[in-house]
Amino acid sequence: PEKVCVVCAIQTKATTINFNTSKSQILSVNYIILMSKKIGLFWLRDDFRVIKNYGLAEATKNHDQVVVFYLYKKLLFKNQEAQKWWLSKSLLNFKKKLNEFNINLEIIKTDSFKLFFDKLLKKKDISIYWNKVYEPDYLKFDQQLIKNLMIKKISYKIFKGNTLNEINEVKKSDGTPFKVFTPFWRNAEKYYIEKIPSKEKIIKRCLRKKNFFQNCINPYEILPKKKWFKNFEKIWSPDEESALKELKIFIKNRIINYSDDRNFPNKIGTSKLSPFIKFGQIHVEKIWDECSRVNKKRIGTSKFLAEIGWREFNHTLINHFPHMLKNNYSKKFDQFPWEKNAKFLLAWKKGLTGYPIVDAGMRELYSTGWMHNRVRMIVGSFLVKHLLINWKEGEKYFKNCLLDYCAASNVGGWQWVAGSGADAAPYFRIFNPILQGEKFDKEGEYVKKWIPELKNISKKFIHKPWELISDKNFKLGRDYPFPLVKHEEARAKALSAFKQI
Predict the structure, then answer these.
(1) pTM of the entire structure?
(2) Is pLDDT of 280 > 90?
(3) Residue 104, C-beta contacts closer than 8 angstroms, at least 6 positions apart
Protein backbone atom coordinates (compact mmCIF):
# COMPACT_ATOMS: atom_id res chain seq x y z
CA PRO A 1 0.00 0.00 0.00
CA GLU A 2 2.96 2.41 0.48
CA LYS A 3 4.31 1.80 -3.03
CA VAL A 4 2.75 2.41 -6.42
CA CYS A 5 3.84 1.16 -9.82
CA VAL A 6 4.25 4.08 -12.15
CA VAL A 7 6.73 5.37 -14.67
CA CYS A 8 6.58 9.09 -15.33
CA ALA A 9 8.94 11.49 -17.10
CA ILE A 10 8.49 15.24 -16.85
CA GLN A 11 10.22 16.99 -19.71
CA THR A 12 10.49 20.48 -18.21
CA LYS A 13 12.04 19.26 -14.97
CA ALA A 14 13.81 16.19 -16.40
CA THR A 15 12.49 14.15 -13.47
CA THR A 16 11.89 10.41 -13.60
CA ILE A 17 9.70 8.39 -11.23
CA ASN A 18 10.65 4.72 -11.11
CA PHE A 19 8.80 1.64 -9.86
CA ASN A 20 9.98 2.12 -6.28
CA THR A 21 8.75 5.68 -5.86
CA SER A 22 6.66 6.23 -2.73
CA LYS A 23 3.26 7.90 -2.64
CA SER A 24 4.67 10.97 -0.86
CA GLN A 25 7.30 11.42 -3.56
CA ILE A 26 4.64 11.25 -6.27
CA LEU A 27 2.58 13.87 -4.45
CA SER A 28 5.67 16.07 -4.33
CA VAL A 29 6.31 15.68 -8.07
CA ASN A 30 2.64 16.33 -8.81
CA TYR A 31 2.99 19.56 -6.83
CA ILE A 32 5.95 20.57 -8.98
CA ILE A 33 3.98 19.84 -12.16
CA LEU A 34 1.02 21.84 -10.86
CA MET A 35 3.17 24.80 -9.80
CA SER A 36 5.13 24.89 -13.06
CA LYS A 37 1.88 25.33 -14.98
CA LYS A 38 0.88 28.30 -12.86
CA ILE A 39 2.22 31.82 -13.25
CA GLY A 40 4.52 32.86 -10.41
CA LEU A 41 3.90 36.46 -9.33
CA PHE A 42 6.50 38.19 -7.19
CA TRP A 43 5.38 41.37 -5.43
CA LEU A 44 8.40 43.68 -5.53
CA ARG A 45 8.68 46.17 -2.69
CA ASP A 46 12.09 47.03 -1.19
CA ASP A 47 13.83 44.10 -2.91
CA PHE A 48 15.74 45.42 -5.95
CA ARG A 49 18.31 42.63 -6.00
CA VAL A 50 18.92 39.09 -7.21
CA ILE A 51 21.31 38.05 -4.39
CA LYS A 52 19.44 36.94 -1.26
CA ASN A 53 16.05 37.75 -2.73
CA TYR A 54 14.34 34.78 -1.11
CA GLY A 55 10.83 35.36 -2.44
CA LEU A 56 11.91 35.81 -6.05
CA ALA A 57 14.27 32.83 -5.88
CA GLU A 58 11.45 30.60 -4.64
CA ALA A 59 9.16 31.81 -7.42
CA THR A 60 11.69 30.92 -10.12
CA LYS A 61 12.29 27.55 -8.48
CA ASN A 62 8.59 26.63 -8.69
CA HIS A 63 7.51 28.22 -11.97
CA ASP A 64 8.56 28.22 -15.58
CA GLN A 65 7.12 31.71 -15.99
CA VAL A 66 7.52 34.45 -13.40
CA VAL A 67 6.29 38.03 -13.48
CA VAL A 68 7.59 40.64 -11.06
CA PHE A 69 5.14 43.45 -10.30
CA TYR A 70 5.60 46.73 -8.45
CA LEU A 71 2.63 48.64 -7.08
CA TYR A 72 3.22 52.37 -7.30
CA LYS A 73 0.96 54.07 -4.82
CA LYS A 74 1.42 57.77 -5.49
CA LEU A 75 0.11 58.82 -2.07
CA LEU A 76 2.92 56.90 -0.33
CA PHE A 77 5.51 59.05 -2.11
CA LYS A 78 3.64 62.34 -1.76
CA ASN A 79 6.25 63.76 0.62
CA GLN A 80 9.22 61.70 -0.56
CA GLU A 81 10.32 63.62 -3.63
CA ALA A 82 13.96 62.55 -3.59
CA GLN A 83 13.03 58.90 -3.36
CA LYS A 84 10.84 59.16 -6.46
CA TRP A 85 14.05 59.62 -8.43
CA TRP A 86 15.77 56.65 -6.77
CA LEU A 87 12.67 54.48 -7.22
CA SER A 88 12.33 55.39 -10.91
CA LYS A 89 15.98 54.58 -11.61
CA SER A 90 15.82 51.39 -9.53
CA LEU A 91 12.83 50.11 -11.49
CA LEU A 92 14.50 50.93 -14.79
CA ASN A 93 17.77 49.20 -13.84
CA PHE A 94 16.11 46.19 -12.21
CA LYS A 95 13.88 45.68 -15.21
CA LYS A 96 17.00 45.38 -17.39
CA LYS A 97 18.56 42.98 -14.90
CA LEU A 98 15.50 40.73 -14.79
CA ASN A 99 15.45 40.54 -18.58
CA GLU A 100 18.58 38.39 -18.29
CA PHE A 101 16.45 35.86 -16.38
CA ASN A 102 13.52 36.00 -18.83
CA ILE A 103 11.48 37.74 -16.15
CA ASN A 104 9.26 40.71 -16.90
CA LEU A 105 8.91 43.59 -14.43
CA GLU A 106 5.57 45.39 -14.66
CA ILE A 107 4.68 48.60 -12.80
CA ILE A 108 1.06 49.18 -11.85
CA LYS A 109 -0.20 52.50 -10.59
CA THR A 110 -2.82 52.06 -7.90
CA ASP A 111 -4.60 54.07 -5.22
CA SER A 112 -5.19 51.05 -3.01
CA PHE A 113 -3.29 47.82 -2.40
CA LYS A 114 -6.52 46.26 -1.16
CA LEU A 115 -8.52 47.04 -4.30
CA PHE A 116 -5.68 45.84 -6.49
CA PHE A 117 -5.44 42.45 -4.75
CA ASP A 118 -9.24 42.07 -4.59
CA LYS A 119 -9.17 42.15 -8.38
CA LEU A 120 -6.03 40.04 -8.76
CA LEU A 121 -7.32 37.26 -6.50
CA LYS A 122 -10.17 36.60 -8.92
CA LYS A 123 -7.65 35.15 -11.37
CA LYS A 124 -6.78 31.46 -11.48
CA ASP A 125 -3.53 29.56 -11.91
CA ILE A 126 -1.37 32.04 -10.06
CA SER A 127 0.91 31.82 -7.04
CA ILE A 128 2.10 34.90 -5.17
CA TYR A 129 5.42 35.48 -3.43
CA TRP A 130 6.81 38.43 -1.51
CA ASN A 131 9.31 39.50 1.15
CA LYS A 132 8.34 41.34 4.32
CA VAL A 133 8.66 45.07 4.91
CA TYR A 134 9.01 45.70 8.64
CA GLU A 135 6.61 48.58 9.14
CA PRO A 136 3.35 48.10 11.09
CA ASP A 137 1.02 48.98 8.19
CA TYR A 138 2.79 46.63 5.78
CA LEU A 139 2.83 43.73 8.23
CA LYS A 140 -0.84 44.29 9.02
CA PHE A 141 -1.67 44.24 5.31
CA ASP A 142 0.37 41.03 4.88
CA GLN A 143 -1.84 39.26 7.40
CA GLN A 144 -5.01 40.39 5.68
CA LEU A 145 -3.65 39.37 2.28
CA ILE A 146 -2.67 35.91 3.58
CA LYS A 147 -6.16 35.47 4.98
CA ASN A 148 -7.73 36.32 1.61
CA LEU A 149 -5.31 34.06 -0.26
CA MET A 150 -6.27 31.14 1.97
CA ILE A 151 -9.97 31.80 1.43
CA LYS A 152 -9.44 31.90 -2.34
CA LYS A 153 -7.18 28.81 -2.11
CA ILE A 154 -4.38 30.60 -3.93
CA SER A 155 -0.89 29.34 -3.14
CA TYR A 156 1.54 31.86 -1.66
CA LYS A 157 4.81 32.16 0.24
CA ILE A 158 6.08 35.07 2.31
CA PHE A 159 9.73 35.44 3.30
CA LYS A 160 11.94 37.34 5.72
CA GLY A 161 12.74 40.85 4.53
CA ASN A 162 15.92 42.92 4.67
CA THR A 163 16.95 42.36 8.28
CA LEU A 164 19.29 40.00 10.10
CA ASN A 165 16.59 38.78 12.47
CA GLU A 166 12.81 38.82 12.45
CA ILE A 167 11.50 41.68 14.58
CA ASN A 168 10.01 39.35 17.22
CA GLU A 169 12.98 37.02 17.58
CA VAL A 170 15.09 39.11 19.97
CA LYS A 171 13.47 39.92 23.31
CA LYS A 172 14.38 40.15 26.97
CA SER A 173 14.16 37.06 29.18
CA ASP A 174 10.69 38.14 30.33
CA GLY A 175 9.43 38.25 26.74
CA THR A 176 9.23 42.05 26.50
CA PRO A 177 11.06 44.07 23.83
CA PHE A 178 14.38 45.76 24.51
CA LYS A 179 14.25 49.52 24.98
CA VAL A 180 18.01 50.07 25.27
CA PHE A 181 20.31 49.52 22.31
CA THR A 182 23.42 47.95 23.86
CA PRO A 183 21.74 44.87 25.43
CA PHE A 184 19.50 44.56 22.37
CA TRP A 185 22.42 44.41 19.95
CA ARG A 186 24.43 42.10 22.18
CA ASN A 187 21.56 39.61 22.13
CA ALA A 188 20.60 40.20 18.48
CA GLU A 189 24.16 39.67 17.25
CA LYS A 190 24.52 36.50 19.30
CA TYR A 191 21.17 35.19 18.07
CA TYR A 192 22.05 35.80 14.42
CA ILE A 193 25.48 34.18 14.70
CA GLU A 194 24.05 31.07 16.37
CA LYS A 195 21.31 30.61 13.79
CA ILE A 196 21.84 27.96 11.15
CA PRO A 197 22.92 29.95 8.07
CA SER A 198 20.16 30.06 5.51
CA LYS A 199 21.00 28.08 2.41
CA GLU A 200 21.78 30.42 -0.45
CA LYS A 201 18.90 30.44 -2.92
CA ILE A 202 19.59 31.63 -6.42
CA ILE A 203 17.26 33.04 -9.06
CA LYS A 204 16.83 30.68 -11.99
CA ARG A 205 16.35 31.69 -15.59
CA CYS A 206 12.73 31.20 -16.67
CA LEU A 207 11.77 29.42 -19.88
CA ARG A 208 10.20 32.50 -21.42
CA LYS A 209 9.03 36.00 -20.53
CA LYS A 210 5.40 36.65 -19.74
CA ASN A 211 3.24 39.76 -19.91
CA PHE A 212 0.54 39.57 -17.27
CA PHE A 213 -0.85 42.93 -16.18
CA GLN A 214 -2.55 45.58 -18.29
CA ASN A 215 -2.16 49.37 -18.26
CA CYS A 216 1.35 49.27 -16.85
CA ILE A 217 3.29 52.51 -16.46
CA ASN A 218 6.82 53.50 -17.42
CA PRO A 219 9.43 54.13 -14.67
CA TYR A 220 9.93 57.66 -16.01
CA GLU A 221 6.36 58.54 -15.02
CA ILE A 222 7.42 58.33 -11.36
CA LEU A 223 10.10 61.04 -11.59
CA PRO A 224 9.45 64.29 -9.66
CA LYS A 225 8.20 67.22 -11.72
CA LYS A 226 10.94 69.53 -10.43
CA LYS A 227 14.27 68.70 -12.05
CA TRP A 228 16.50 69.61 -9.07
CA PHE A 229 17.44 65.93 -8.80
CA LYS A 230 19.63 66.13 -11.93
CA ASN A 231 22.65 66.42 -9.65
CA PHE A 232 21.80 63.02 -8.13
CA GLU A 233 22.56 61.35 -11.44
CA LYS A 234 26.20 62.50 -11.22
CA ILE A 235 26.58 60.91 -7.78
CA TRP A 236 24.44 57.78 -7.51
CA SER A 237 23.76 54.64 -9.56
CA PRO A 238 20.71 52.92 -8.02
CA ASP A 239 21.39 49.27 -8.82
CA GLU A 240 22.68 46.11 -7.17
CA GLU A 241 26.02 46.12 -8.96
CA SER A 242 26.85 49.59 -7.60
CA ALA A 243 25.85 48.56 -4.08
CA LEU A 244 28.14 45.53 -4.17
CA LYS A 245 30.96 47.63 -5.63
CA GLU A 246 30.60 50.29 -2.91
CA LEU A 247 30.61 47.61 -0.20
CA LYS A 248 33.77 46.05 -1.63
CA ILE A 249 35.58 49.41 -1.82
CA PHE A 250 34.48 50.34 1.70
CA ILE A 251 35.69 47.08 3.23
CA LYS A 252 38.99 47.21 1.35
CA ASN A 253 39.87 50.87 1.99
CA ARG A 254 37.82 52.39 4.79
CA ILE A 255 36.34 49.96 7.27
CA ILE A 256 39.59 49.61 9.24
CA ASN A 257 39.42 53.31 10.24
CA TYR A 258 35.63 53.57 10.24
CA SER A 259 35.32 54.06 14.01
CA ASP A 260 37.19 57.40 13.79
CA ASP A 261 36.78 58.55 10.18
CA ARG A 262 32.97 58.32 10.25
CA ASN A 263 32.93 61.44 12.44
CA PHE A 264 34.67 63.73 9.95
CA PRO A 265 32.41 65.05 7.18
CA ASN A 266 35.38 66.31 5.14
CA LYS A 267 36.58 62.70 4.76
CA ILE A 268 35.07 59.83 2.78
CA GLY A 269 34.89 57.65 5.86
CA THR A 270 31.42 56.10 5.71
CA SER A 271 30.00 53.42 3.43
CA LYS A 272 27.19 55.48 1.82
CA LEU A 273 25.25 52.23 1.49
CA SER A 274 22.11 53.51 3.24
CA PRO A 275 20.01 54.26 0.08
CA PHE A 276 20.92 50.85 -1.34
CA ILE A 277 19.90 49.15 1.91
CA LYS A 278 16.62 51.05 2.03
CA PHE A 279 15.60 49.92 -1.46
CA GLY A 280 17.04 46.46 -0.99
CA GLN A 281 19.71 46.70 -3.67
CA ILE A 282 21.78 44.92 -1.05
CA HIS A 283 20.66 42.67 1.81
CA VAL A 284 22.10 43.30 5.27
CA GLU A 285 22.93 39.58 5.40
CA LYS A 286 25.23 40.13 2.42
CA ILE A 287 26.87 43.03 4.25
CA TRP A 288 27.32 40.82 7.31
CA ASP A 289 28.80 38.01 5.20
CA GLU A 290 31.37 40.30 3.61
CA CYS A 291 32.27 42.01 6.90
CA SER A 292 32.66 38.67 8.67
CA ARG A 293 35.59 37.92 6.38
CA VAL A 294 37.42 40.91 7.86
CA ASN A 295 39.28 40.48 11.15
CA LYS A 296 36.37 40.77 13.61
CA LYS A 297 38.68 42.10 16.35
CA ARG A 298 39.10 45.38 14.53
CA ILE A 299 36.92 48.03 16.08
CA GLY A 300 36.03 49.54 12.69
CA THR A 301 34.18 46.41 11.60
CA SER A 302 32.25 46.00 14.84
CA LYS A 303 31.37 49.72 14.84
CA PHE A 304 30.05 49.46 11.30
CA LEU A 305 27.99 46.35 12.08
CA ALA A 306 26.60 48.17 15.13
CA GLU A 307 25.09 50.68 12.70
CA ILE A 308 23.24 47.76 11.12
CA GLY A 309 22.27 46.95 14.71
CA TRP A 310 20.74 50.39 15.21
CA ARG A 311 18.65 49.83 12.09
CA GLU A 312 17.45 46.50 13.51
CA PHE A 313 16.74 48.13 16.89
CA ASN A 314 14.67 50.93 15.34
CA HIS A 315 12.62 48.43 13.34
CA THR A 316 11.74 46.49 16.48
CA LEU A 317 10.82 49.73 18.27
CA ILE A 318 8.36 51.00 15.65
CA ASN A 319 6.59 47.63 15.60
CA HIS A 320 6.37 47.17 19.34
CA PHE A 321 5.58 50.86 19.91
CA PRO A 322 3.90 51.98 16.65
CA HIS A 323 2.66 55.24 18.20
CA MET A 324 6.22 56.59 17.91
CA LEU A 325 5.94 56.80 14.11
CA LYS A 326 3.72 59.87 14.45
CA ASN A 327 4.10 60.90 18.06
CA ASN A 328 6.61 61.01 20.88
CA TYR A 329 7.78 57.63 22.14
CA SER A 330 7.99 59.22 25.59
CA LYS A 331 4.56 60.62 26.43
CA LYS A 332 5.98 63.31 28.73
CA PHE A 333 7.26 65.09 25.62
CA ASP A 334 3.66 65.71 24.60
CA GLN A 335 3.85 68.63 27.04
CA PHE A 336 7.09 70.08 25.67
CA PRO A 337 6.76 73.82 24.85
CA TRP A 338 7.74 73.70 21.17
CA GLU A 339 7.80 76.99 19.31
CA LYS A 340 6.34 77.62 15.87
CA ASN A 341 8.61 79.89 13.87
CA ALA A 342 8.18 79.64 10.10
CA LYS A 343 11.05 82.06 9.46
CA PHE A 344 13.54 80.02 11.50
CA LEU A 345 12.33 76.73 10.01
CA LEU A 346 12.75 78.02 6.45
CA ALA A 347 16.23 79.37 7.21
CA TRP A 348 17.18 75.95 8.62
CA LYS A 349 15.89 74.16 5.52
CA LYS A 350 17.76 76.49 3.16
CA GLY A 351 21.04 76.37 5.09
CA LEU A 352 20.89 80.01 6.19
CA THR A 353 21.00 79.74 10.00
CA GLY A 354 24.31 81.61 10.32
CA TYR A 355 26.05 78.54 11.77
CA PRO A 356 28.34 77.17 9.02
CA ILE A 357 28.44 73.49 10.01
CA VAL A 358 24.63 73.42 10.20
CA ASP A 359 24.17 75.24 6.89
CA ALA A 360 26.73 73.06 5.11
CA GLY A 361 24.83 69.94 6.16
CA MET A 362 21.48 71.27 4.97
CA ARG A 363 22.92 72.26 1.60
CA GLU A 364 24.61 68.89 1.20
CA LEU A 365 21.24 67.24 1.84
CA TYR A 366 19.41 69.26 -0.80
CA SER A 367 22.16 68.87 -3.38
CA THR A 368 22.94 65.15 -2.95
CA GLY A 369 19.95 63.54 -1.22
CA TRP A 370 22.28 62.45 1.57
CA MET A 371 23.91 63.95 4.66
CA HIS A 372 26.90 62.88 6.72
CA ASN A 373 25.92 61.01 9.89
CA ARG A 374 27.73 63.32 12.33
CA VAL A 375 26.19 66.37 10.67
CA ARG A 376 22.71 64.80 10.85
CA MET A 377 23.03 64.88 14.63
CA ILE A 378 24.31 68.47 14.60
CA VAL A 379 21.55 69.88 12.37
CA GLY A 380 18.91 67.86 14.25
CA SER A 381 20.05 69.10 17.63
CA PHE A 382 20.15 72.67 16.32
CA LEU A 383 16.54 72.53 15.13
CA VAL A 384 15.04 71.04 18.28
CA LYS A 385 17.31 72.49 20.97
CA HIS A 386 18.50 75.81 19.58
CA LEU A 387 15.34 76.77 17.72
CA LEU A 388 12.92 74.72 19.87
CA ILE A 389 11.09 73.55 16.75
CA ASN A 390 9.30 70.20 16.99
CA TRP A 391 11.37 67.24 15.77
CA LYS A 392 8.42 66.25 13.55
CA GLU A 393 9.19 69.22 11.28
CA GLY A 394 12.74 68.00 10.81
CA GLU A 395 11.64 64.42 10.28
CA LYS A 396 9.16 65.58 7.63
CA TYR A 397 11.80 67.57 5.73
CA PHE A 398 14.33 64.73 5.86
CA LYS A 399 11.65 62.37 4.59
CA ASN A 400 11.20 64.56 1.53
CA CYS A 401 14.91 65.07 0.80
CA LEU A 402 16.71 61.88 1.85
CA LEU A 403 17.36 59.13 -0.67
CA ASP A 404 17.87 56.73 2.23
CA TYR A 405 14.64 57.68 4.02
CA CYS A 406 13.41 54.80 6.15
CA ALA A 407 10.58 55.36 8.60
CA ALA A 408 12.23 53.38 11.39
CA SER A 409 15.66 54.98 11.12
CA ASN A 410 14.45 58.51 10.43
CA VAL A 411 11.91 58.65 13.26
CA GLY A 412 14.27 56.80 15.57
CA GLY A 413 17.10 59.20 14.79
CA TRP A 414 15.04 62.34 15.27
CA GLN A 415 13.55 61.15 18.53
CA TRP A 416 17.05 60.17 19.72
CA VAL A 417 18.26 63.74 19.09
CA ALA A 418 15.17 65.32 20.64
CA GLY A 419 15.43 63.12 23.74
CA SER A 420 11.89 61.79 23.29
CA GLY A 421 12.84 58.33 22.00
CA ALA A 422 13.94 55.03 23.48
CA ASP A 423 17.57 55.05 24.65
CA ALA A 424 17.71 58.68 23.50
CA ALA A 425 20.37 61.33 24.02
CA PRO A 426 19.98 63.00 27.45
CA TYR A 427 18.09 66.29 27.39
CA PHE A 428 21.16 68.26 28.51
CA ARG A 429 23.22 67.05 25.54
CA ILE A 430 22.98 70.07 23.29
CA PHE A 431 25.49 70.06 20.45
CA ASN A 432 27.51 73.26 20.28
CA PRO A 433 27.66 73.88 16.50
CA ILE A 434 30.82 75.97 16.85
CA LEU A 435 32.78 73.34 18.80
CA GLN A 436 31.41 70.53 16.65
CA GLY A 437 32.67 72.33 13.55
CA GLU A 438 36.08 73.08 15.06
CA LYS A 439 36.52 69.49 16.23
CA PHE A 440 35.25 67.57 13.20
CA ASP A 441 35.96 70.05 10.37
CA LYS A 442 39.08 71.70 11.74
CA GLU A 443 40.27 73.23 8.46
CA GLY A 444 36.75 74.10 7.33
CA GLU A 445 36.99 71.92 4.20
CA TYR A 446 33.46 70.57 4.52
CA VAL A 447 31.99 74.01 5.20
CA LYS A 448 33.80 75.62 2.27
CA LYS A 449 32.68 72.88 -0.09
CA TRP A 450 29.00 73.57 0.57
CA ILE A 451 29.13 77.27 1.47
CA PRO A 452 31.25 78.89 -1.25
CA GLU A 453 30.59 82.37 0.17
CA LEU A 454 32.88 81.39 3.07
CA LYS A 455 35.68 79.91 0.94
CA ASN A 456 38.11 82.78 1.69
CA ILE A 457 37.50 82.85 5.44
CA SER A 458 40.42 81.63 7.58
CA LYS A 459 40.01 78.51 9.70
CA LYS A 460 40.12 80.72 12.81
CA PHE A 461 36.74 82.23 11.88
CA ILE A 462 35.24 79.62 9.54
CA HIS A 463 32.90 78.24 12.23
CA LYS A 464 32.17 81.64 13.82
CA PRO A 465 32.31 84.23 11.02
CA TRP A 466 30.54 86.81 13.18
CA GLU A 467 33.81 87.28 15.09
CA LEU A 468 35.57 88.43 11.94
CA ILE A 469 35.85 92.15 12.63
CA SER A 470 37.10 93.49 9.31
CA ASP A 471 37.42 91.97 5.86
CA LYS A 472 36.88 94.10 2.78
CA ASN A 473 35.77 91.09 0.74
CA PHE A 474 33.31 89.70 3.27
CA LYS A 475 30.45 91.32 5.12
CA LEU A 476 28.17 89.50 7.53
CA GLY A 477 24.53 90.11 6.70
CA ARG A 478 25.39 90.68 3.05
CA ASP A 479 27.46 87.65 2.07
CA TYR A 480 26.34 85.32 4.83
CA PRO A 481 23.54 85.69 7.40
CA PHE A 482 23.86 86.65 11.03
CA PRO A 483 23.20 83.71 13.41
CA LEU A 484 19.49 83.16 14.05
CA VAL A 485 20.20 82.74 17.76
CA LYS A 486 23.16 83.01 20.12
CA HIS A 487 24.35 79.60 21.25
CA GLU A 488 24.61 80.39 24.97
CA GLU A 489 21.17 82.00 25.11
CA ALA A 490 19.55 79.22 23.05
CA ARG A 491 21.10 76.55 25.28
CA ALA A 492 19.85 78.19 28.45
CA LYS A 493 16.38 78.56 26.94
CA ALA A 494 16.33 74.88 25.89
CA LEU A 495 17.35 73.68 29.36
CA SER A 496 14.59 75.82 30.85
CA ALA A 497 12.06 74.27 28.48
CA PHE A 498 13.22 70.76 29.39
CA LYS A 499 12.76 71.55 33.08
CA GLN A 500 9.06 72.11 32.43
CA ILE A 501 8.61 68.42 31.60
Answers:
(1) 0.91
(2) yes
(3) 67, 68, 98, 209, 210, 211, 212
